[in-house]
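FORM 7B: Structural annotation worksheet

SECTION A. Query
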Amino acid sequence: MRLLVFGASGKTGHELVRQAIEHGHTVTAFVRTPGKLTIAGPSVRVLAGNVADSAAVAGAIPGHDAVVSALGVSTPLKHDADVIAGVQHIIAAMEEHRVRRLIYVSFIGVRESRAAVGFVLRYIAPIPLRQEIADHEVKESLIRSSRLDWTIVRPPKLTDGPRTVCYRSGNDISTWKPVPVLSRSDVAHFVLQELVEPRYVGHTPRLLQ
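SECTION B. Predicted structure
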């Protein structure tokens, strides 16, 4: 499969690229700063660009079978208009070039799924994370209004732990752990499995241990 990964230089993006290569896919890594991507090889093409640049995004889309967004905010806890614009550009370019499959990594703390988690993520975390959560909700709304074959993945707090494959996925699963966590490696595993064996097209699966 020919994958285009936005946000490939971030921690989750790195893991997506690494596991995609491991599974024999070819990857285009769209990054703002190429030097931050430490993965190289014949199966990886690095494309420098800013998602806020609609022309750069439009030029990246053709020739791919699927797109994965692991875009993060440039400044933690802050609103990031560029990333919201970037998701708009991704959707528009995918629709124009008829690349239909999109997976977007969101967060279980958005309002629609917040009741599925314990006290901390339900009541406390939304205060400092309010801007990031609000941005996720806007981006989710844009994706859900598109004509794409989308999946919005909602993991909890991410860690740098190993891939365990000991996680649950589903539209209605829940946990009472105060601060549920999941490794980025397990998130990447789920995303790549969903690309190969789609089960959640048009859905917003949660990921929990």
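SECTION C. Observations
The chain has a mean pLDDT of 95. DSSP finds six helices and ten strands in the chain.

SECTION D. Sign-off
Analyst initials: ____
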